[in-house]
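Box 3.1 A note on notation
Throughout this textbook, protein chains are presented in two layers. The first layer is the amino acid sequence; the second is a token string describing backbone geometry. Keep the layers aligned when reading.
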Amino acid sequence: MSDRTRPTRADYVAWRTITTRWRDDDAYGHLNNATYYEMFDTAVNAHLYEATGVDIRRLPQIGIVAETGCRYFREIGFPAPVEAGLVCEKVGTSSVVYRIGLFQGDGEEAAAEGRFVHVYVDDTDPARPVTPVPDVIRAAVAPLLR
């Protein structure tokens, strides 16, 4: 993760509201760290589904999560929903790097920011060799570039 300052809502391009659930909170009463990663995964893949109009699981080339990370800034938890902001940091030949900001309440600063990297592989080959980002995915993420 970079040493960037705490992100704000203005740093993101696409938005999704994610409902929190009772089970998302841990014994200390705040969102369990694994749930943050589920939210990152949901924000990225829901955007890809909607922006491409196809079932991305059925493409011959699929995005495999190669790297994730999270910077935590403040607690969030059930019952309030979370707004996930999404931006693309980089679109390479075979990978896409996303940043996802999680916000709860009216504040302008993120409660957490995730980094999520997809590397595309050929799902028709059992060895799953790395392949270029499919055109349909590239078109879906290009508007997210900042």
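The beta strands are 14-18, 61-72, 82-91, 95-103, 112-122. The radius of gyration is 16 Å.
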